[in-house]
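Thread title: Can someone regenerate the structure for this chain?

I was given the following input by a collaborator and told the matching structure tokens would be attached. They weren't. Posting the sequence so someone can regenerate them.
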Amino acid sequence: MNTELYLRKMQAEDLDRAMALKNAEGWNQTKKDWLLFLNGRPEFCLVAVAGDKPVGTVTAIAYQQRLAWIGMMLVDRDYRRNGISRKLMAEIIDRLSGVETIKLDATPEGQLVYERMGFIKEYTLLRYVRMPAASEQSTVNQEEVFSLSREQLPALSKFDAAVFGAEREQLLRYLVHEFPEGAFVCRTGKHVNGFVICREGSKYLQVGPLVAETDETAKKLVSRVLRQFSDRPLVLDVADDKLAFRNWLNAQGFERRRPLIRMYYRRNGRVGMPEKYYLIAGPELG
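Best answer:
Regenerated them for you:
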């Protein structure tokens, strides 16, 4: 590559180009998702520029300076094998130096690159997709599932923080505000057993995050989503060790697609409770 390459903070005028890079990979994010990063912590939203053309992107979101998530690592196919992704990763890691733990969700190809940079595998996630279809009557009892309002989030975020590994009420509040009809909580009396929040995407309705105490609670929550959004294409990412839950997803018409590898940088000081973390918010959000 003869053209000079440099990195800078993303600007609003870069969003169309960022969306084009995202669309070329068939990813599900929307312009609102880019704005979440750009308006939140712009210093963690970077582009690589060749000449005057943005050819790569990376973002990060930090939760309480305790846990950060790197995402939206994209490089124009015509500019690959020029070290652009490595430069972007090195810069974003440097900017996150004050955060206790850094994580990301990598493709199998990206895993090899990130391992050379000091990232370590934590566990594997599997993507499942369900195309629009008539939703059969589930045998799962949904009587304990209710709509989730933003007023419930302060109390709910404590439950979530213990499972996720850091407090992220601001993100949960944003997700519920953007798509309130896709937010549900499962409770017995006043006791919260779990919750799920959906998010509009460019191709699919993303189901997650979903935090639950048991498989049965997770099934109740997904059953509620299926009942309301059977006419929508759905996507979700679930840990591969949730075998019984994944078998149930298969029975509901979900089909397994590609894996992702959850990784942490050098040390994992924010493990959380992965046994209760059923569906992630998205590879770019954790």
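The two ends are 33 Å apart (CA to CA).
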